[in-house]
Design brief:
The protein is α/β, with parallel strands linked by helices. It has ten helices and seven strands. The chain has a seven-stranded mixed beta sheet, with helices on both faces. Helix 2 crosses helix 3 and helix 5 packs parallel to helix 8. The chain is globular. It starts with 27 loop residues before the first helix and ends with a strand. The N terminus is likely disordered. Bound molecules: S-adenosylmethionine (SAM). The site of S-adenosylmethionine has 23 residues, from strand 2.
């Protein structure tokens, strides 16, 4: 069990792709999308989460419209899928990499008993939104319960001490990382021996698919996302010293219902590209994956 609170470190050395540890130098598109644009507020997402969702727990969806409540539930369930890979972790410490507005951190506290929880995000606006949304749970603040802290910093250069966390998880953030090997090394550094990693997001299935995807999906072409290849990414986890790396495709419970939800959004009628994720999945170019590993 871990109770040590991480400290935000001094600005790191210059020359790293993410700049100083406490003030990441974000790729321009990432800075815009999670800054002024505030991706959580667009119709594709709901409830403050920003992920495609895991829909297997919603029962039989055929023959009925998908509601906003379904969409929120799918996004929460993606967190439940990831956090459910940790067992026997009540009262253990956790770090979320790419926490967005921090709703998954609150869910980890509330439903899984992880405590304390640190949410790390590279965008200052996301950290500000997360702190504003969870005042009651914040460590150190007036009325804060001390169980939750939000830290500004890159997952590729974590401003956190070594061997601090029992669990590290991440939901739909790795696609933004320019240096996944740096993330893997940082994960191995901040986890305690025996600590567990669980993460989920979408990856290219092969190197050839990674070359093809920017022609199909604008977020790859405009620099928001990077088409990391699943086997290569799993290899970086192992190369960083993490063991028992497991990869599970979960796209069957992601892409089709997400596409149905998108098809219902009138705001997206003139904007068909978001529906190309299902096309890319069906063409065998990309999939959504759950990865686990042990330090
Ligand atoms: C798609 S959102 C997912 C947010 C949240 N996990 C969820 O599911 O609602 C990706 C998040 O990763 C953050 N991010 C992007 N690059 C990052 C990096 N290098 N290190 C940490 N966070 C990063 C973004 O600021 C954004 O909040």
């Amino acid at each position: 069990m871990a109770q040590q609170q991480p400290q935000t470190g001094p600005a790191g050395a210059t020359g790293h792709p993410d700049g100083p540890a406490s003030a990441p130098d974000l790729p321009p598109r990432v800075a815009t999308v999670y800054g002024a644009y505030d991706l959580a507020t667009v119709p594709a997402f709901a409830g403050g989460f920003i992920n495609f969702g895991y829909w297997a727990g919603l029962g039989d969806l055929t023959g009925r419209p998908l509601t906003e409540a379904d969409r929120v539930r799918s996004e929460q369930d993606l967190y439940r899928l990831v956090l459910g890979t940790f067992d026997g972790v009540r009262g253990h410490s956790a770090l979320e990499a790419g926490c967005g507005r921090g709703l998954g951190c609150a869910l980890a506290l509330r439903e899984f008993g992880l405590d304390p929880v640190i949410g790390l995000d590279a965008h200052p606006d996301q950290i500000a939104r997360a702190r504003a949304a969870h005042v009651q749970l914040l460590a150190g603040g007036a009325g804060g319960s001390g169980r939750l802290t939000f830290v500004l910093g890159s997952a590729q250069r974590m401003p956190l001490p070594r061997e601090t966390f029992d669990c590290l998880y991440s939901v739909e953030a790795v696609q933004h990382f320019r240096a996944p090997a740096a993330f893997a090394r940082e994960a191995a550094r901040v986890l305690r021996p025996g600590g567990r990693l669980a993460l989920t997001t979408f990856f290219a299935r092969t190197p050839a698919a990674a070359r093809e995807l920017p022609g199909l999906l604008p977020p790859y072409a405009d620099g928001l996302d990077v088409p990391h290849v699943i086997d290569e990414f799993a290899g970086t986890l192992a190369a960083a010293g993490l063991r028992d790396v497991m990869v599970r495709p979960i796209g069957e419970a992601v892409w089709e219902p997400y596409d149905r939800y998108m098809a219902q959004q009138p705001e997206l009628a003139d904007d068909e590209w978001p529906r190309r994720y299902l096309t890319a999945y069906q063409a065998g170019l990309l999939d959504y994956y759950l990865l686990t590993a042990v330090r």
